[in-house]
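Researcher: Structure for this, please.
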Amino acid sequence: MVENDKTVVIDASTAHRTNPDWAYGFPELGAEFNDKITGSKRIAVPGCHASGFIALVYPLVKNGIISKDALLCAHSLTGYSGGGKGMIAEYEDDGRNDMLNAPRQYGIAQKHKHLPEMVKITGLENAPAFCPIVSDFYSGMEVTVPLFKSQLLKGGIEEIKQIYRELYNTPIISFNEGADEGGFLSANKMKGKDSMSIEVYGNEDRILLVARYDNLGKGASGAAVECLNIKLGCERTKTLEV
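Model: Predicted structure, token format:
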């Protein structure tokens, strides 16, 4: 039914995210991504964890701040809605297991399904050591990539901020300085939003790259609707909560 020259497919699964014949649905990464979405009939919506990691790392690889062969780490805090109907029911059950009261790390075999796109889209040669953590809140996501000054090929924390400032300046993705909550970072700050906040903390020696968004928003359906708006020629933020 879709093998024709008219039907556009926007796929939210993992099936096509690393397929070079499909557009990767993250237009804010640059003209190359935006133009491919505009001209494609096949668009893959990014994964939730991958969205934050790629938003943080891709511009730094592209601008020569970190090497393609860098060995990176990342941790990601997510609400339980990211686990689908089964996990939602588990967390919202009155008689649930007490262990669900505390954050739970998963993906411990380092085979998380988002790793292939995290590597391919950023241009990295090595998968990061990835630590996703699900906690007792419905939606929201916070992805953090720590860097040491010694890992940078050039520049420092201010240069990184400037790259983000120039690239991410739209209602959907924006760089925000000093966006913490008095020294804390809440993973559900962007709940209910389809936008993403890019933030940088730390100092010249140890730098924290942070992306905060809703795993159901820019990490999922919000990204799909943005791609749909692009294909329909609508304002990108149409029907989105930004």
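Researcher: Any notable elements?
Model: Residues 170 and 191 are 18 Å apart (CA to CA). The longest helix spans residues 217-232.
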